[in-house]
Amino acid sequence: MPVDLLDSWRDLPAAQQPDWPDPAQVGAVADQLAKLPPLVFAGECDQLRAQLAAVARGEAFVLQGGDCAETFSGATADDVRNKLKTLLQMSVVLTYAASVPVVKIGRMAGQFAKPRSKPVEVREGVELPAYRGDMVNGFGFTADERTPDPGRLLRAYHAAAVTLNLCRAFTQGGYADLRQVHAWNQDFVAASPAGRRYERLAGEIDRALAFMHAAGADPEEFHRVQLYSSHEALILDYERALTRIDSRSGLPYDVSGHFLWIGERTRQLDGAHVEFMRHIRNPIGVKLGPTTSAEDALALIDKLDPEREPGRLTFVIRMGAGRVRDALPPLVEKVTASGAQVAWICDPMHGNTFEAESGYKTRRLDDVMDEVAGFFDVHRALGTHPGGVHLEFTGDDVTECVGGGHEIVEDDLHQRYETACDPRLNRSQALDLAFMVAEMYRTTK
Ligand SMILES: O=C[C@H](O)[C@H](O)COP(=O)(O)O
Ligand SMILES: C=C(OP(=O)(O)O)C(=O)O
Ligand SMILES: [Mn+2]
């Protein structure tokens, strides 16, 4: 494939790009990034594509999640382990309670750039550029921090490398061993209803493992888990610089992450993001909000998955609890009728954000659950496969979303509101949701 095609996006309008003060500096940084080693490998991306093909065929379920916006200061062993622990616990709940293979994808090791609904933020009469993620500018509300700095692209690469290294060590080195199901819950068990419910399930898993061991299964089977990394491919100079030609196939892969997605604000058919993503071989996603028409979805398939290859394209539906039951069916019907085999997964976070009276951005766990329920209802009615969930959560005990076992109310939000962008489920809310999704899956299939 001609390498020029990887730059064809440069002639098209690119939404949500930073206003870099010195564009020449971006070119210099991109040259440095282009010389750095890949963060992920093409063969791993192919493996994920094959697993997503199983999802598209109705044989597996995706659990994708992590922070809305990762931060450089969050690339620590504690933060990464806590997030991973939550993901592993959720995935065990889904695998065991719903009896389905779970494809685990972190919003981790690269989720450093944010699209914003407004380019500026105003506080007490002072107007500054909006925070666009640590890859672009700083969170602090000063002119200095908010000025986009291309040096941050390099820092993002290094923070992603550190995070990925920790993820690989935790998932391959024994921490994720299924025989550790109780250990992941140790700091949590007595403290929350979700922890206690999980502990009961972990007991059942123990007995199942003991049975399999007695029956001759190889314990090594349970020693490792495969975790993939993902982020929104937003800052195109970064993604382009990390795109390499795979020596085995001669095809381009964006080696900044295994799975990359196009956001709701950058999925314009004639825009730079769709053009760039057409040419990379990674499995990719597109977020689809409530205004998406079936024609939009079909046109995206034509551009991004012209060969109709199962596993290549995932639609991440984020309609809002009030819209999903009406807005999703025409998309699923027409896409299915077209013969395309996409994976459908549900992001129940981004269509359910609202501002509390105190000014905090928040989400109700009930709305989140209702959107997932609506997503399952639609697929049940149409006989198609509800292929997964895409969530924003953290391993920490934050107070960012309302509801859940500890019943966080709007007046509690200030207590531990730590997100750099959108409100995340805390560990207990995330586990509550996993139990609910497992139950829905079991009764749908
Ligand atoms: O995930 C990100 C947010 O939904 C997106 O950045 C928009 O948030 P904003 O409305 O605060 O800009
Ligand atoms: C910005 C995000 O989502 P969306 O593009 O769906 O609004 C996100 O996933 O953080
Ligand atoms: Mn978000």
Tag the structure with descriptive keywords:
14 strands; binds erythose-4-phosphate; two-stranded antiparallel sheet; binds manganese (II) ion; 12 helices; 8-stranded parallel beta sheet; 445 residues; binds phosphoenolpyruvate; TIM Barrel; alpha/beta
How would you characterize this protein structure?
Keywords: Amino-acid biosynthesis, Aromatic amino acid biosynthesis, Cadmium, Cobalt, Manganese, Transferase. This is Phospho-2-dehydro-3-deoxyheptonate aldolase. Its cofactor is Mn(2+); Co(2+); Cd(2+). It holds the Pfam family DAHP_synth_2. InterPro entries: Aldolase_TIM, DAHP_synth_2. This protein is an alpha/beta fold. It has one domain (3-176, 224-444): Alpha-Beta Barrel (TIM Barrel), CATH 3.20.20. Helix content is 39%, strand content 14%. The protein has helices at 23-35, 42-56, 77-98, 143-146, 151-172, 193-214, 236-241, 272-278, 294-304, 324-338, 365-382, 427-444; strands at 61-66, 102-107, 120-123, 126-129, 227-232, 243-245, 252-254, 259-262, 284-288, 313-317, 343-346, 353-355, 361-363, 388-392. Strands 11-10-9-8-5-2-1-14 form an eight-stranded parallel beta sheet, with helices on both faces. A two-stranded antiparallel sheet has the order 3-4. It has a two-stranded antiparallel ribbon with strand order 6-7. It is globular and about 60 Å long. The two termini are 42 Å apart. The model has no long low-confidence stretch (mean pLDDT 95). Bound molecules: erythose-4-phosphate, phosphoenolpyruvate and manganese (II) ion. Phosphoenolpyruvate binds next to loops.
